[in-house]
Design goal:
Length: 689
Amino acid sequence: MGLEVLRRLRLRRTALAATLICAGVVPGALPEAWARAEAVQQTTLVPRDELFASPTYSELQISPDGKALAFFHPLNGVLNIWVAPIDDLASAVPVTRFDNRPPDGFQWSADGRFLLILKDIGGEEHSQLWIANLEKRTVINATTDPAVQTKIVKVSARRPGEILVGMNIRDPRYRDIYRIDLATGQRTEVFRNETNYIDVIADPDFNIRMGVRGNADGSWTYFRLDPAGPSEFMSIPLVSLRNSKVFGLDAAGRLTMLDSRDGDKANLVSVDLASGKKALLAEARRADIMEPLFDEESGALLATREDPLVNEWTVRSDDVRAEFAALEAAVAGPFRIAGQTPDNARWLLLETVPNRADRYSWWDRKGRTLTPLVSMRPTLDQRALARRTPVTITSRDGLSLPSYLTLPTGAKLGADGMPVKPVPLVLLVHGGPWLRDDLAFDPQHAWLADRGYAVLSVNFRGSSGFGSAFMAKADRKWSETMHNDLLDAVQWAIDKGVTAKDRVAVMGLSYGGYSTLVSLSFTPDTFQCGVDLAGPSNLVRLASAMPEWWTWQKPQFLNRMGDPSTPEGAADLLRRSPISRVDAISKPLLVTNGANDPRIFPDQSQEIVDALKVRGKPVTYAFYPDEGHVYAKDESNISFAAIAEHFLSNCLGGKAEPYGDDLVGSQVELKTGTGFVPGLEKALQAGAK
């Protein structure tokens, strides 16, 4: 079946879903057809390829003239960028034809004639700038060096045929600034960064007005770059750095930014570049302000979004108060505003839909009507997916931990909403650690719940979005109070009857992988097994082997995690490293890493795998020679999900879909422990044929 036929079938399914919703169907009142589908799906596992293949539609962006949409959509099994008339997605055409791995991101040029695309080669995070000329239908690589990392510095309507970029050609630690002609790809150096700024800020006329210097204590200092020379403008201390963010500098010389320096939460402020005077635009209420909504025409602030547990919009203009009330009554769940048409007539929403994948919708501002546009994963619209529930868990020292619980699909619940009988639970730990979990659709939650597990994700101390103090409580507490938060969440689930003490597994990526290793080595009696995706096992090595282009954030790690530059610091980091407690690991461990990972080098995984092998411990290592830190290829994600699913089934007894051909096409290498995962050796042999 051809791609175009598949695409139109997906659109028809999405259109049917949209029609049903527009007809007044709301969560909890599914139409008869969907109810029948739910009944069927209770006995049928959701295929892994529907959960772990790339979203069918994602990153929708409105063109500057409001006539087109650009978005990610698969082409021959690889996410590419497509463009469609704004009200005719079925007429979309591919702009790029990448055949190996998808782009990392893209944006429109100021005049909409080009798409600006960032994409690395093999997961090493050396972003190359690709320029798609929509009129000529050409795509060129404007970086042309896989060892160089490119960052887009400024796109401006005042300079529509050009952009400013930073490239670390001269010095891998710092970027010089270049102006690039979008029609030709030709670049001209405009600012040689011999003062070693970790970032710069330009005005709409492409003048470099500010430079940012990273300091040894983890703080950042902003310098005003005047003709007479640089002068210090403002400093952001380490405690405020992760929830303070400069959005940009306008033509009048005003910085708009999130700023937590005057309190715990991040407020929205404006700072005059000439005088340094700061004006409060919006004060945070219950959590950090995550993003503002400005009127596209007038520039007036309309609303701000926070996420203390569930997305909340605070109206900041009386002009839209009634409109937001109508909007919040119409949406299916929490939402973000992904774009606005230039005529200010419509907003593009990204909605979190109960029991479904997230979807894009149009909000007509004049008529105050909501029209679903497309699901991010249309094939899942006919599936019965478990619903994530926000819960707040109290830590042993009284901290409130915003968390999300998903119960198994079809589980029988009691009056308290918890399972009548305890079920196996997977503690799913986010990375960062300065990231967070939220209520948006998560394929891992849907997958595990479909297989019979409860899934619990915890915003442990150190997670972002909840204020500076919440984050600072994690400083130099890796494997200590940060881990205690996870243990307290597991105990909460046991006390609530969700699970039992001998039915818990742990799984996570990056810092979540580290938490998995900590769980099995520091608290081996709490967990029955663990799945470590690119987790550091040796914190001394992690701190010492950061890539050169991490100059901008290395001091943050050393001050928040620990500094191995002194004997005492190195000893402390080693004490909190799972490799130092490998003898305590007794439960089965599944490890994976990508060869090109620039954050957690594969030797972090290899070291602990080798140590466990020598001791005869049950460890399985799935290695991907063509991947980086976060796996980008569908084949990689689907194949690892198949391996992890059978590993967890053997550990906790959940359901497992047969391997089928889910290992075919991936480059996975099983370095060791194939026999610890049921059926894996046979599936590998079948895939090799």
